[in-house]
Amino acid sequence: MGQELRDQRAIAAAIQRTASSDDRAPGSNPLPPAASASGSQPMETQLVMSAASRQRLLACIAEGVRDYIVASVDGRVSVRVRLDVLATGRGQQCFANGTVVVDWSSATIEHGNNRVSLTQTELRLMSVLLEADGHLVPRRALIAQTWPRADPSTRENMLGVYLCGLRKRLASIGLPNTLQTVRRAGYRLRLSAVTPPGPTTLDESD
User: Fold this and answer.
1) CA distances for 34 relative to 19, 39, 91, angstroms
2) CATH of domain 92-204
3) Which residue in 37, 64, 70, 73 has a CA-CA distance of 20 to 30 Å to 57?
4) No. of H helices and E strands in the chain?
């Protein structure tokens, strides 16, 4: 019950802005106008859903999906909502003697003057790999910590896709070969041999 309450609060806290009345689904009843994107207060929201629906929504949030249609049980009221996951508050962390900076709040990684944006999934992968401090992270453990609510068998192929994207992003800021694959064992992030970067600047976003 405690976990269910925490999940419910996490979902409610993520809802920052609903669409205006023009965005209502056809045939739905009018709803009070929401605060604008620049408003100071988010709309008060309470979600009541089944355990299965809650798990699907949490999985979508973890994948970075932002736009949804939320409907009442009887289907008479529906509204489009946009979710914003609140910042973790971890701020910035420096690695490799200060030559690599990860900003957890803005989801970016910097190497000297070079910076690249990461998706939320790539950021979670980075977190797990960095916590291992250069040591091997088994594939199953990486999946379990990146997608704690998902069935590991459904993430096997996705892991390779996300790691490929993360490897390319690291290479784009002068960190090639830092994300290593150990055949049939797992992965590790080696930043110990990183040298100060050159003057080239690259800023890439999702």
Assistant:
1) 7, 9, 30
2) 1.10.10.10
3) 37
4) 5, 11
